[in-house]
Amino acid sequence: MMHPTPRRRRRAALAPLATIATALLLTTGTAGAANAEPPARDAKLDVPPKTARGLEPARDAVERLLGEASDGFDLAMLESADGADAYEITSKRNHVRVAATDSATAIAGVNAYLATIGQSVSWNVRNLDPEAALPLPAEPITATSNVSHRFYGNDTEDGYTGAYRTWDEWEREIDELAALGFNEVFMPVGSEAVYAEVLEQFGYSAEEARAWIPLPGHQPWWLLQNMSGYPAGTSEALLEERTELGRKIADRLRELDMTPVLPGYFGTVPTDFADRNADARVEPQGGWVGFQRPGWLDPNSAVFPAVAEAFYEASEEKLGASNAYKMDVLHEGGRRGSVDVPAATRAIETALQTAQPGATWVLLGWQNNPPEDVAAAVDPETTFIVDGLSDRWARGDLEAKWSGVPYAFGTIWNFGGHTTMGAELAKWNELFDEWLNRDGSRVDGIAALPEGGLNNPAAIDFFAGLAWRDGPVDVNAWFDAWTERRYGVDDPELKAAWRILAETAYTLPDNEGYSEAHDGLYGARPSLSASAAATWSPGSLSYDPDRFAEALDHLLAAAPAAGGNASYRYDLMDVARQVTSNTSRVLLPQLQQAYGMRDRAAFTGLSEEWLGNMDLLDAIVATQPQTLFGRWIADARAAGADAAEADRLEFDARSIVTTWGDRSAVDAGLNDYANREWQGLVSTYYKDRWERFFASIQTAFDTGRAPASIDWYAVGAEFTASTDTSAFLTEPEGDIVELAGRAVEAHDATVPDVPEPPTAGEHFLSDLPFASASLNAAYGPIERDTEIGEAAYGDGKPIRLAGVEYGKGLGVNSPTTIGFNLGGQCSAFAAVVGIDDIMNKAGASPNVIFRVVADGEVRYDSGAMTKGLAADVDVDVTGVERLELVVDPNAAGSPAGQAEWWDRADWADAIVTCG
User: Fold this and answer.
1) Exposed (0-12), middle (13-18) or buried (19+): which is 546, by Cβ within 10 Å?
2) What residues have CB less than 8 Å from 70, skipping those under 6 apart?
3) Do the Cβ atoms of 579 and 617 come closer than 8 Å?
4) How far apart are CA 396 and CA 408, in angstroms?
5) Which of 358, 585, 620, 808 sees the fewest Cβ atoms within 10 Å?
6) CB 70 within 8 A of CB 63
């Protein structure tokens, strides 16, 4: 049930804990010593279990999870205190007794018990042993939810997780979400049939309605009013199939006392709707990332109530009624035009309340949504906001901004279904409790909103537990407990591995621009200046890849203890995949440097290493069914009623993870937005692109000209139009332990050879090899003897500082660090530093700091330098082994959002004296 009115959390007193319950406390609630039966006895499976009336669906779920072992559990009703969901686990009648306030919470209670015996229900892989004994709990285990709303599901989740999932897959995920403690799930499947029926009532033929509705992979953005009809219209058979599936999903959620949050009606219509309905006024919505948006039927127009009424009637008929509906007006740049938005908001709300009295309107907190005048116009008692940016932006006073509407602390740790590991877990641990308990807080929920699901199982497990814990936890202790319930063994190597993962991938930089970790560059559109595969993903490493790789060493060391465990094999794959993926961000600067120095032998060797790592990456992800592109395609084709429709659905499935849309969408930034490291996708599409790119550079070496440009959209269009699946596996293969060992070797091999130190004499640094180079490649390579220019190689102009031209030097853009091996052979470093004169123009506001670092010690700091300035640098480097030239973007002194904008910093006449 949706509960829009927040309550303050109730803090339970903690009794002394038994050792086995300590892990459970970190996962969910508390354990106490009262009324406990003697320990060291197992549940009796030959005694028929009891199930309280109303918990029969929970019984069915436990049977699905544990088979005959479910007979060791009695399920009892627990009276709710203050309306809060809760469970209590004790023992009675030689059974584990789980008392809970509803079916979903009972399943969460069973999962909490399983954690105490080294088992768990989780995403991706379950660690369950139906043959294991079920020890009766020595102490009661209790937990009470501190919020009413435990919401799962981004609007985009169906498209990026799998629009062609079967009922069996949905059933499995629903059980997992219940076991993790969620009670509200966004459920859009089948809504297309609702829209089709409504349009037929308002002047459209069935064929016209279906042509407007996108294929399933792209439907989420149609429901968001972003686009329509791409890549093709849907079919009658597919409408019927999806409606049947959506009804089963919604019914199962209701059976488990979980709320299916359905799409509501806020006015999305075809752009010609007013031509067919005299009382309609449609506000054009313009474009969205290369697509034309549908129209917005002004909710203040006379026909809107009738359209909304027809929508909710059709929705109830096809999907059943709900008490929560999700709608987002003006999503990602929607246009107000002449619409009176506050009045429109009230009209949307009135239509919902007329159709489903008391239902909750759910809105997404994202970018500028909901607009402040929308939040001010709604009824806070029947409105709830699921915030997607709680861990990303400085959110300010949301209670004031959203006019007292209650909301959920939410996160989007995954964009586009990327396979990258990482989340803001450390930040959640502190912020949620702070937000929940501050004076006047309207927080009454958590919202897990990854754009693509079934990734980062540790992240969703930790995040879901926020709603059941009594405050921040020791993150290392939590991960120690996680390993025990995930793998069923207490192994120091596993714990060491996850502590490293906790401090790297799950403690991301405090960067307001991103709430996910970096993606890999093997899946990026080829360029020596590539900084991310997806346009709006981090452009640099989110953590130290060498430290992250140490986790793989520990996981491999645990193979003798945990190698037979399915969860271990999945996690070993995922970490080995990430270690291999990270090599792309180490190798690309080396490729840049080799090409910049026109070192063909080095470039050829590095490109071969790059392609070899792609082969290894493909082999690693081939070991798990969830990372097989062949299954993604097979699922899509299986939904087709005939061969022609199967081809259309395959195009839908291929395009959503590659080009996304047509050329205009690609050019607008959607290309590779949903990139992912899957078997088949890596070895064909991604590898083919890089092979073409490297071949173009080899030709450039031959001709002495710039590499020929490649029409990457045409390459993508060729791939998405193909139906050749011969290189795509549908069943996993390979030895992940052996492959993970090769991943360690691949990581170690990326460490470049250290150049020889300079010989005696004076040497311009632009003539010396770099020992290392760290930069944001999006701004182009480091240029030798010119300013940085644009993104291409060799496009810089002569270095000029304060009116003086220099023939030698290094041109960079911040942030950049260039390392040189001096080997203790030099005595002095000198240069002239400043912003290149090319920036002496109106509107430019570069601001950087130059530093010279000798063996880790800062020996020169320029302070803030802006355009028109130049400074002489003289540094004693006697005995220094490693010299680093650093250009800091000086975020504190730069305009908001422009710290890493073009600044064109120069190290003119940079020279060392050696010998």
Assistant:
1) middle
2) 49, 59, 62, 63
3) no
4) 15
5) 358
6) yes
Q: CA angle 640-646-650, nearest 5°?
A: 120
CA torsion 695-697-701-704 (nearest 10°) is 130
What are the φ and ψ backbone dihedral angles of 259, each rounded to 5 degrees? Answer: -90, 120
- At residue 777, the pLDDT reads 63
- Residue 795: what pLDDT? 86
739: burial class by Cβ within 10 Å (0-12, 13-18, 19+)?
A: buried
Q: Which amino acid is at 768?
A: L
DSSP conformation class of 538: -
Contacts of 342 (CB under 8 A, 6+ apart): 373, 374, 376, 377
Q: What is the pLDDT of the chain when averaged over all its residues?
A: 93
The C-alpha atoms of residue 798 and residue 805 are separated, in whole angstroms, by 7
- Mention every residue, 6+ apart, whose C-beta is less than 8 A from residue 387: 365, 395, 398, 407, 408, 409, 410, 447
Q: Which residues, 6 or more positions from 753, have their beta carbon under 8 angstroms from its beta carbon?
A: none
* C-alpha–C-alpha distance, residues 223 and 220, integer Å: 5
Q: What is the pLDDT of residues 830-842, one digit of tens each?
A: 999 999 999 998 8
Give pairs for 605-609: CB < 8 Å, separation 24+. 607/690, 607/694, 607/697, 609/749, 609/750
Who's near 679: CB < 8 A, 6+ residues apart?
618, 619, 621, 622, 627, 628, 629, 630, 728, 729
Count Cβ atoms below 10 Å from residue 334 Cβ, excluding itself.
22
In the chain, count H helices and then E strands: 28, 31
DSSP 614-647: HHHHHHHHTTSGGGBHHHHHHHHHHT-SSHHHHH
Beta strands in 416-467 (DSSP E): 443-448
The DSSP symbol for 591 reads H
How far is it, in rounded angstroms, from Cα 491 to Cα 44?
29
Q: Do β-strands 407-411 and 383-387 pair in parallel, antiparallel, or remain unpaired?
A: parallel
Q: What is the band of 27 on the pLDDT scale with cuts at 50, 70, 90?
A: low
**Helix, strand, or coil here: 905?**
strand
Structure tokens at 65: 């999870």
Q: Where are the beta strands (DSSP E) in 305-347?
A: 324-326
CA distances from 622 to 486, 558, 567 (A): 22, 21, 16
